[in-house]
Amino acid sequence: MNDQEAIGEAVARTVRALRAGHGWSLDELAGRAGVSKGVLVGLEQGRGNPNLGTLIRISEALGVPLTRLVQVEEQPAVRLFPPERQVALWHGPDGGRGVLLGGSDPRPSLELWHWELRPGEVRDSDAHVPGTKEIVYVEDGVLTLRVDGRSDRVETGTAAVFAGDRPHSYGNDTDRDLRFVLAVLDL
Length: 187
Hints:
- By secondary structure, this protein is α+β, with helices and mostly antiparallel strands.
- It has helices at 3-22, 26-33, 37-44, 52-62, 66-70, and strands at residues 87-91, 97-103, 109-117, 122-125, 133-140, 142-147, 150-155, 159-163, 168-171, 178-186.
- The protein is built from five helices and ten strands; from the N terminus they run αααααββββββββββ.
- Helix 2 (26-33) crosses helix 3 (37-44) and helix 2 (26-33) crosses helix 4 (52-62).
- The protein starts with a helix and ends with a strand.
């Protein structure tokens, strides 16, 4: 494979992935970028030879630098986050903690967390960027989940999906420890 073919495949793969990550149709990206749908179809299939102006318009519409579209080196299919790379980013007053187990980049990004809250501990969170979704699974205990003024109890073995783009908090209103896993999708 020559350099031009490798770049064409990189652009195709990246544009498809970023467009899908935004949840956009071909028509929507074409409209946002000011290019024809036919140009995008060819681009995503690795056909054609788009000019620099077209690539710049597409990168701007997708919100990424041009270099991101033409990077030939692909991220590995699997990225490992061994325990020494997992970071405790929140420490509760009574010993609870929130550990970022791993994440992806750039946007849309996905984070996976493991939380432990001691009795009475609460972790308040500001609203994330618009469109952010979160899903929590309670391994042990009872989570008091507060989202935009509403309070729900999430029992052991239960999962809950909620809008992370609203003020929210995770709390332990019981007299026993709480453990839960949290995934954050930041669109």
